[in-house]
Design a protein that fits this description.
- With 690 residues, the protein is α/β, with parallel strands linked by helices.
- The protein is built from 24 helices and 22 strands.
- The chain has a 9-stranded mixed β-sheet, sandwiched between helices. Strands 14-19-16-17 form a 4-stranded antiparallel β-sheet. A 3-stranded antiparallel β-sheet has the order 1-3-2.
- Helix 5 crosses helix 10 (156-169).
Length: 690
């Protein structure tokens, strides 16, 4: 096998063929001619991509590998690792973007000659074509112009494929696709800032204005990418790979000036003489080894030397030190930073000088770590001689309707972002803002300068009044009464005993039905953003709610869309759950962790199908167990072989059970709403006890 041949794992083979990993394991056992492993480990072997493709074609299991899948497999199996492959791919895409004609000429040359000319061309494109400042620390061109022909040689198949994909998708979209796939494949390796919070932070810092922006802990560059009108962007990260990827990503997005540096910003600040218009930062949390001892006399600590346990306050002061006078910094912070006693002296200093302008509590699930409600701190570098701001804006977006119980996949992010910006706009303009109970309030700084200097928004906001007052609670009570009456009407009648208890009907499996063409199986989560298309998530299926998710941004890739009569089944976590798609849910994209079964109407009744799929015994025999959860193999689920007329008899009974279940679920939600509303109303004085 050539040294630069790409390798693919069993999971990659399954993706190529559109099957589950169990099918790949069966092929390896049953077919002596299946390609032998060429790398990997005993538990996770790797195979030569070319050999696998040829074997799949010979077996009639693969007509042609989609171009994007081929390029991804070449990247993930890169001899020097996926990150090195991404850097090489990004460099090639710079050439594709800036010099398309020269790239076309390069691809017609033999491999060795192509890499030699490409190495020279990369330096020229980086320095001249992108107008990047090359002075100072490591910059984006350094990640490019230090590449030699020998470095690029193992990447030739990948680079040729990347060029073809760029002709189809565009250079920027191709890099975003490959980077997104790499991040999805390594979720524990990176701490990512989701696009929603990144856009909110950019809007708070600059709004629609242009300016220079720095991210001193840039990661993959999501925050800098969110700034629409940046004149210049600067990024630094302790991980050289991330610094290089960020530089390439931003250059491909067409930023006028891009500089990235690979070093720890606190210990080795690459931009010590810089003064920017805005700083955006999602710093590492809870770091003890951030340089407390060696940086004790650093001039950046204008507001006090942070304690060893207050690394986040070191990042706050670093951000302020890199701002011009009047510039704005927005940092994503852990909630403990607003109230830990070890940081109260610095928090007091920030308030007295007017440097801290707002503390905004986000709902849990907005950004990692997803289990806690993170805060946004909005800071402004005080100008010489300017009076300190007399008030601090506090916003608790976690208290918005539906946010507290939504969870990560169902968070109403657009409502959160609108509420935060609506509270910030008048405060930024006037230095004060009206009070919105439970949501926002501008608090006099003197009121906060007590022994604790606790800046947690929830502790300083008046509680929201019970929504709608007593009239709204009466409406909930009436709706609950009607729902309980309907639930009683829908209670299933006594079921007659079967004439022959325990007699087993002849069974078939979902896999056999799929092979016979009686239904179609599709997996969720493959699509990317399509305007106006909601996503049906696992949460929605488990809780019987409307589609609530959104698709990720990326190059156009058709999602799996639901249709009336489809059956949707969650495959992770265990439990007998399935749902028939109705008219209201039809047209939604199928989310991750879901399997769609589309029955042929002339062969299968969807309600008959969903009823038997929900059988506890059926789910038990079709489930396998991973380290921390169970996984359902939908193809192994069983159902009886019955004529369509008999299926419909079962289906009507299963449909009635589903209506009863929906009524019970609604009654439970209304009951909880009424109980909590009465608690809040009694304690807030909205309703009286008699």
């Amino acid at each position: 096998m050539p040294d630069n041949a790409a390798e693919v794992t069993a999971a990659g083979i399954a993706r190529l063929a559109g099957v589950g990993r169990a099918a790949v394991s069966n092929w390896r056992r049953r077919h002596a001619d299946f390609p032998k492993p060429v790398g990997g480990t005993e538990t996770s072997p790797a195979f030569a991509l070319g050999e696998v493709e040829q074997w799949l074609r010979d077996q009639g299991k693969l007509a042609e590998v989609p171009l994007r899948e081929r390029v991804w497999q070449q990247l993930s199996g890169h001899p020097a690792g996926a990150v090195a492959g991404l850097v090489h791919a990004g460099c090639a895409l710079l050439v594709v973007r800036e010099r398309p004609e020269q790239w076309f000429q390069l691809t017609a040359l033999p491999d060795q000659q192509m890499t030699e000319l490409l190495a020279h061309l990369l330096t020229e494109v980086a320095v001249h074509g992108l107008s990047v400042n090359t002075s100072g620390a490591m910059t984006t061109p350094d990640a490019v112009n230090t590449l030699s022909a020998a470095d690029l040689a193992p990447s030739v198949p990948l680079l040729r494929g990347v060029g073809e994909l760029a002709a189809e998708l565009g250079a920027r979209q191709t890099f975003e696709f490959l980077l997104g796939r790499h991040l999805d494949a390594n979720p524990r390796q990176y701490t990512l800032t989701p696009p929603g919070p990144a856009e909110l932070m950019a809007a708070l810092a600059l709004g629609s204005a242009a300016g220079s922006v720095l991210d001193p802990a840039c990661g993959t560059g999501t925050l800098l990418r969110a700034v629409e009108h940046a004149d210049a962007v600067y990024g630094q990260d302790a991980d050289p790979d991330l610094a290089a990827l960020t530089g390439l990503r931003l250059a491909l997005h067409g930023r006028a000036e891009v500089r990235t540096a690979a070093a720890d910003s606190l210990r080795a600040d690459a931009f010590s003489g810089l003064a920017v218009d805005a700083v955006l930062c999602h710093p590492p949390f809870n770091e003890r080894n951030w340089g407390h001892d060696e940086l004790a006399y650093d001039p950046r600590w204008e507001y006090g030397l942070p304690a060893r346990t207050e690394s986040e306050l070191a990042w706050v002061q670093h951000a302020l030190a890199r701002l011009r006078e009047g510039g704005t910094a927005v940092l994503l912070m852990p909630p403990a930073a607003a109230s830990r006693r070890s940081g109260r002296r610095i928090r007091a200093g920030l308030l007295r000088r007017g440097a801290l302008r707002a503390v905004i509590a986000l709902p849990a699930g907005a950004a990692p770590p997803y289990g806690i409600p993170l805060h946004l701190w909005v800071l402004r570098r005080p100008g010489a001689g300017s009076p300190p701001a007399p008030e601090l804006l506090l916003v608790d977006a976690a208290g918005l309707p539906g946010a507290a119980e939504a969870g990560r996949d169902k968070l109403p992010w657009q409502a959160v972002q609108s509420a935060v910006l609506d509270a910030w706009a008048p405060f930024e303009r006037d230095g004060t803002a009206g009070e919105q109970p439970g949501l926002s309030r501008s608090v006099p700084v003197l009121e906060l300068l007590d022994d604790d200097v606790d800046l947690a928004p929830a502790r300083h906001l008046p509680p929201p009044a019970a929504a709608g007052g007593a009239d709204a609670l009466d409406a909930v009570r009436e709706e609950l009464g009607a729902t309980l009456r309907r639930t009683a009407e829908l209670t299933p009648p006594p079921a007659p005993a079967a004439p022959h208890p325990g007699a087993r009907l002849p069974l078939t499996t979902v896999g056999e039905l799929a092979r016979a063409g009686a239904l179609v199986l599709r997996s969720g989560g493959a699509g990317t953003s399509v305007s106006g298309v909601p996503v049906l998530t696992e949460y929605d299926v488990l809780n019987g709610t409307a589609p609530s998710g959104t698709l990720p941004d990326g190059p156009a890739e058709e999602p799996v869309l639901t249709a009336p009569g489809d059956v949707v089944v969650p495959v992770l976590g265990g439990g007998a759950v399935a749902r028939v798609v109705d008219e209201a849910t039809a047209g939604a994209a199928l989310g991750r962790g879901l399997q769609l079964l589309r029955p042929e109407p002339a062969a299968l009744d969807p309600w008959f199908l969903v009823g038997f799929l929900r059988s506890t015994a059926n789910n038990r025999q079709a489930s396998s167990y991973m380290t921390t959860a169970s996984r359902l193999d939908v193809r192994r689920l069983q159902l009886p072989r019955l004529p369509l007329a008999e299926q419909r008899g079962y289906g009507e009974r299963f449909r009635a059970l589903a209506a009863f279940e929906d009524a019970l679920r609604l009654a439970g939600r209304l009951g909880e709403q009424l109980v909590q509303g009465l608690h809040d109303g009694l304690t807030d004085g909205v309703v009286r006890p008699e």
